[in-house]
Design brief:
By secondary structure, this protein is mainly α. 82% of the residues lie in helices and 0% in strands. Helix 1 packs across helix 6. The longest helix has 32 residues. The chain is elongated and about 50 Å long. It starts with 7 loop residues before the first helix and ends with a helix.
């Protein structure tokens, strides 16, 4: 019978960095909080009786930070985890989710119709983004904390400026 793997040390390390002001994982967490709040506002708007498509579009426009956030993850987290440390999961699975979210985001911005179909796409997009945020918090950050060196964090920090 195999034992379970204990990831509690990884989660503690991730929590430490997430709470350390100015640390890259803290910055990504703060960005995720903004992304989360905007997606929740979008969902609340589109699920209310008094849907406001103009306000919903403005919320979507404010989510422009997603593109940079996901680019940084790809270049400064997924690639080093995979190529330097042999951690394939985030790049292979979460990277696909990120690419789909960015594509969905661009489609929402380009769509010129303010209709039920756009609102449905916006709800699916928001749901997908919230799942990505949870994966970052619960999976990615502990993989980073377990593997990254100060040099890796310096590269990540440099991309955030």
């Amino acid at each position: 019978m195999q034992g379970t793997i204990d990831f509690s040390d990884n989660k503690k390390a991730a929590r430490k960095y997430v709470n350390e002001k100015g640390h890259p994982l803290n910055i990504l967490t703060e960005e995720n909080a903004k992304i989360w709040d905007l997606c929740q506002a979008l969902i609340n708007n589109l699920c209310s009786e008094k849907k406001d498509i103009v306000a919903a579009r403005k919320v979507v426009e404010k989510l422009v930070m997603i593109e940079k956030h996901y680019k940084i993850k790809k270049e400064a987290i997924y690639i080093p985890l995979k190529e330097k440390y042999g951690v394939f999961g985030p790049n292979d699975y979460m990277g696909v989710d990120d690419a789909e979210v960015v594509e969905m985001y661009k489609d929402l911005l380009e769509e010129d119709k303010d209709d039920v179909e756009w609102m449905g796409k916006a709800l699916i997009f928001s749901d997908r983004v919230l799942k990505v945020v949870n994966k970052e918090k619960n999976i990615l950050f502990s993989a980073v904390a377990r593997n990254f060196t100060e040099e890796d964090y310096a590269v990540l920090r440099g991309m955030m400026i």
